[in-house]
């Protein structure tokens, strides 16, 4: 098997059209703003100073990431596993990041790129209370690019279709999975995991 080179790519794929290139905007416009305000979920991708890459899910009520201007987003940090890989990458690496926003029921997604900085400004923390809790930190994002992806990937996956949803019991609880992998801690049932999660949102 031969790995593809840059020259090979040019022969395999046609050049993007002018419209595809032009859709990448240098700021959050009215359509991107509306999409972010409707979005309860996104994936945050960052890269570390050693070249490692991290992608992590982020979620909250629709609009949990606040549009603070055409070049500014604010993302509250909620309780997680305390690895803080994303934040380490941002403060120790280049700070460059990418976000992909999802809105349930809409197959198109929104990609936003920019540079991040982590803050614990008390006024910002207080303004971003959710689930009865203040965030521990806020990620400020200086937006440099935003564009919509077509809906083909989500259409192929049928991500929003009820027909493709699996019954939760076909896969073990995350607690059981980690116990099997590490032999650390006591395994919990899915019901116990969900009950615990609800107290930690």
TrEMBL record:
What InterPro entries does the entry give? Pyridox_Oxase_FMN-dep (IPR024029), Pyridox_Oxase_N (IPR011576), Split_barrel_FMN-bd (IPR012349)
> Per the record, a Pfam family?
PNPOx_N
Q: Which residues form the Pyridoxamine 5'-phosphate oxidase N-terminal domain?
A: 31-150
Gene3D superfamilies xref list:
Electron Transport, Fmn-binding Protein, Chain A (2.30.110.10)
Name-wise, this protein is Pyridoxamine 5'-phosphate oxidase N-terminal domain-containing protein
Q: Which organism is it from?
A: Bradyrhizobium erythrophlei
């Amino acid at each position: 098997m031969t790995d593809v080179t840059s020259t090979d790519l040019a022969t395999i794929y046609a050049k993007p059209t002018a419209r595809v290139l032009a859709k990448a905007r240098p700021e959050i416009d009215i359509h991107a703003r509306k999409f972010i305000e409707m979005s309860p979920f996104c994936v945050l991708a960052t890269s570390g100073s050693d070249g490692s890459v991290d992608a992590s899910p982020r979620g909250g009520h629709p609009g949990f990431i606040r549009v603070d201007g055409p070049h500014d987003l604010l993302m509250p940090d909620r309780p997680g596993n305390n690895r803080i890989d994303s934040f380490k990458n941002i403060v120790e690496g280049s700070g460059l990041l990418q976000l992909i926003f999802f809105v349930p029921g809409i197959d198109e997604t929104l990609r936003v790129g920019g540079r991040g900085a982590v803050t614990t400004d008390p006024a910002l923390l207080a303004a971003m209370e959710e689930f009865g809790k203040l965030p521990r930190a806020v990620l400020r994002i200086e937006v440099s690019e935003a564009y919509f992806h077509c809906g083909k990937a989500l259409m192929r996956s049928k991500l929003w279709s009820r027909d493709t949803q699996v019954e939760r019991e076909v896969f073990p609880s995350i607690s059981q999975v980690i116990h099997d992998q590490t032999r650390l801690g006591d395994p919990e049932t899915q019901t116990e995991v969900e009950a615990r999660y609800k107290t930690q949102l």
